[in-house]
Amino acid sequence: MAASNIGRAGLVIAAGTLTSRLLGLIRSIVLVYAIGSIGAGANAFATASQVPNTVYTLIATGALTAVLVPQITKAALAADGGARYINKLVTLAIVGSGAIMLAAAAVTPLLIHWLGASWPADQVRLATMFAFWLLPQILFYSLYTVLGEVLNARSLFGPYAWSPVLNNVLNIAGLLVFVWFFGSDPDGRRGVEAWNVAGEALVAGSTTLGVAVQALILFAFWRRAGLSFRADFGFRGVGLGTMGRVAMWTFLSVLLTQATGLFNTRVMNLAGQDEAGIAAWQLGSLIFVLPHSIITISIVTARFTRMSENVHAGDLAAVSRDLQGSARLAALAMMFFTVTMAVLAYPLIRLIQPSSSYEVIATVSVVLLANLVGLVPFSLLFVFNRGFFALSDTRTPFFIQAGQCAATVVAAVLCMGLPTGMITATITLVVSITWLVQMTVTFLLLRRRIGPVGGRSVVAGLLQNAVAAIPAAAAGVGVLVALGGISEGAFPVAGFGGALVSCAAVTVAMGAVYAGILLLLRNPEAAALARRATAMIPGRR
């Protein structure tokens, strides 16, 4: 794919992802307005959503992408352009994910009972009912990923990036209807006894409906990709065995990570009704992953097909250049968002929870701060893993992931002895630290596999980013203090308007300082972005 096409694809993906994420943010605002971010109902819903959410997170960060793009790229060399292979692949995805969904349904009651072992029986029942409404997401998220990656592999990036917009619109509509009939509960005070089938259907059912539409709408774009779907259950004869061997390690990684996440959920559910639990963790994670999803995934997704093509062509130097460029761009952006969101933690949570008490804002903000420690290594890990995935090597990332999961489980067990109000934030912080270790090991092993990956250049970029981030953070704190600080009743945290103004003012101040220092340091990525921004000014070339 030509560089100009890569740029256009990146813009399409970034625009769609940005729109979807902004709507997702609105959806989260409506959700916490409806059921809160702490309390029995919020934690029951958050616990029930862990299985499909975990699967989606793995899909969104490329678990299936690791298998699909290289294999589809190979299949495209066939006489039929890969159409037969793709039909078999989609059929297999429907059958396989449907079987997994049914298996999950069979064990859901026992699983929810284990996850909520410290809960009263009525809260366990509520979480179980939520879970049954949410389980079909496993099928539709898998279908969405397969269909989307087929379109991506054919350089049709828009539908995959934009279809989540429909998902969020439908989900927001369902939540608004819930609030209309059942009222709001921003502090999570609604008792379990207040829930009925209609309320469960509006909150959880609308979520699943949105995911279904997000997946099925992609079929409408297949003709543009030169495809037409016909179910094909003859899974042998077109190389699916090769994919299966690659996918085995991905499946094991999914299984391991999901099991670790479920164990962490069980430990977080030890939190009391007024303490940060799994719902607070999900909210903090949503904010944490927002810049990664908009920027890092957009950068790498547009380049991943080219990396896979270069692997097949034997041009590992080109793969290395793409990895180095992606890592430096991701690091520049994620360092800025790390320090900016850390300074704005309280106002950001107030934006999402405009009607919640100050105590709830403070409780959730601590979890967000623990998450932000891992933003840069999390994004760099995403980039470096793409090197292995382009090589169709999912075995190496699995063993690295296994070490990270083992460390997380040990930490979670130790956290069970902490005061319950500290458990969620502490587990989150430990996971952030393990991402740094995992990223470093992944980079070192990748370098052994493909040769130099520009490690010195990436580290030099990180150092420049860190040097620029320190005075930028100081500028942000200064603006925030000038606006009143973050104590209870202060302008930046008193309400939605004050939080919005404060976030905007602090972000502009920090962005100006961060960019200015990077330009003084002659950072090439900052210089390139500045030239692109200047070229967009009317009358400038």
UniProtKB/TrEMBL annotation:
The chain crosses the membrane at residues 30-49, 55-77, 89-114, 126-147, 159-182, 202-221, 233-256, 276-300, 329-349, 361-384, 396-419, 425-446, 458-483, 495-521. It is a multi-pass membrane protein. GO terms for molecular function: lipid-linked peptidoglycan transporter activity. It holds the Pfam family MurJ. Keywords: Cell membrane, Cell shape, Membrane, Peptidoglycan synthesis, Transmembrane, Transmembrane helix. GO terms for cellular component: plasma membrane. InterPro entries: Lipid_II_flippase_MurJ/MviN (IPR051050), MurJ (IPR004268). GO terms for biological process: lipid translocation; peptidoglycan biosynthetic process; regulation of cell shape. It is found in: Cell membrane. Coiled coil: none annotated. PANTHER family: LIPID II FLIPPASE MURJ. This is Peptidoglycan lipid II flippase. It comes from Leucobacter chromiisoli.
